[in-house]
Specification:
Elements: E1 4-7, H1 13-25, E2 31-35, H2 38-41, E3 50-53, H3 59-65, E4 69-74, H4 82-94, E5 100-106, H5 116-130, E6 134-140, E7 142-143, H6 147-150, H7 154-157, E8 159-161, E9 171-172, H8 174-186, E10 194-197, H9 205-216, E11 221-223, H10 227-236, H11 241-255, H12 265-270, H13 277-285
Parallel strand pairs: 1-2, 1-4, 2-3, 4-5, 5-6, 6-10, 7-9, 8-11
Helix pairs in contact: 1-8, 4-5, 9-13, 10-11
The structure holds NADP nicotinamide-adenine-dinucleotide phosphate (NAP).
Length: 288
């Protein structure tokens, strides 16, 4: 019976959150938690969920993990060759019993030229569409949880130097994205569609800096820096060149309004207001 639903990245934040919510919506016996890190998957051991090892770099492990699986939820990796990994998973799924693949990419329009931070998702979606499998695209806003990583030394210097996004960015809390994604997977009325999951209003970096100031009691302002200069700063502080280029491409995409498609879909699917900037920043800043 190919009625199992396999969640990749279940050892990670997004996939793990999706699986935790999904096991409240569907019988756990129908669910498969997949990833490489078996220790991280072990938290699902007592829930009735099946645990399988799956490495996107190992075709045999992908084939084995997809046994009896009719629905595959694919979480992107952060590997430099992730597009190749995603294509491999989709190709193997198309030759298996899988009928439907859902993918969590990022909000975009159809722009080109912003590097793999955007294009890996566009190309993965294109590959899914060409695979013959039923496909559902879940396009996520930028994680609010990732803001501390974007800040650099803003809390010490009082300056958040980042390429200006004049119209703001579509953001969302990763926990809300996980919950909404579980609801999308569980309900066939959401299948075969493109979903845009973010806060209903774009938030710009001036507002972000203002939230930071309020939460920390320290004055923080946003200052524009060109994407090329931002990349150089990252390299200077020790970020590997490839990753610095990836992050600068993402910053440029955000600056140019690529990750900007505010809709109320996230709130609608959750049936409540999503977590906002201050909610997530407060929790993140409280982390030791
Ligand atoms: N929208 C945004 O703002 C944003 C921000 C950051 C990241 N992302 C993307 O969203 C993804 C999920 O985010 P997250 O926070 O859940 O990341 P995470 O906690 O690092 O989880 C990544 C997952 O990918 C799995 N993975 C990595 N390499 C794999 C491989 N070779 N084969 C099979 N699985 C592999 C990991 O599992 P194992 O290690 O157990 O294999 C892990 O479960 C990220 O990977 C990244 O592509 C989006």
């Amino acid at each position: 019976m190919n009625n199992k639903i396999l969640i990749t990245g279940a050892s990670g934040h997004l996939g793990g959150g999706v699986l935790a919510h999904l096991s409240n919506l569907l019988p756990p016996a129908q669910l498969v938690a997949a990833g490489r890190n078996q220790q991280a998957l072990a938290r699902f051991a007592d829930t009735g969920v099946t645990i399988r090892s799956m490495d996107f770099d190992d075709p045999a492990s992908i084939e084995a993990a997809l046994t009896d699986v009719g629905t595959l939820y694919l979480v992107p990796t952060a590997a430099p060759d992730r597009l190749e990994q995603h294509r491999r998973v989709v190709d193997i799924a198309a030759r298996s019993e899988v009928k439907h693949v859902l993918y969590s990419g990022v909000i975009h329009h159809d722009e080109r030229g912003f590097g793999p931070a955007i294009s890996d998702h566009q190309h993965t979606e294109q590959h899914m569409a060409a695979s013959g499998l039923q496909h559902t695209f879940i396009r996520n806003g930028i994680y609010l949880d990732a803001i501390p990583m974007l800040l650099g030394n803003a809390l010490e210097s009082g300056v958040f130097a980042y390429p200006t996004a004049p119209h703001g960015v579509s953001w969302a809390a990763r926990a809300d994205l996980a919950e909404a994604t579980a609801r999308i997977i569980a309900d066939p009325k959401h299948h075969g569609k493109v979903h845009q999951l973010s806060l209903a209003h774009a938030v710009d970096y001036v507002a972000l800096a203002s939230s930071l100031s309020t939460l920390t009691g320290r004055a923080v302002i946003h200052e524009h820096i060109a994407p090329g200069a931002y990349e150089q700063v990252l390299v200077k502080v020790g970020v590997p060149a490839g990753l610095a280029g990836f992050l600068a491409g993402l910053a440029d995409a955000m600056a140019q309004g690529v990750v900007l498609q505010p809709t109320s879909e996230l709130a609608h699917i959750l049936g409540r207001q999503p977590l906002g900037v201050a909610d997530v920043l407060k929790a993140e800043l409280a982390r030791p």
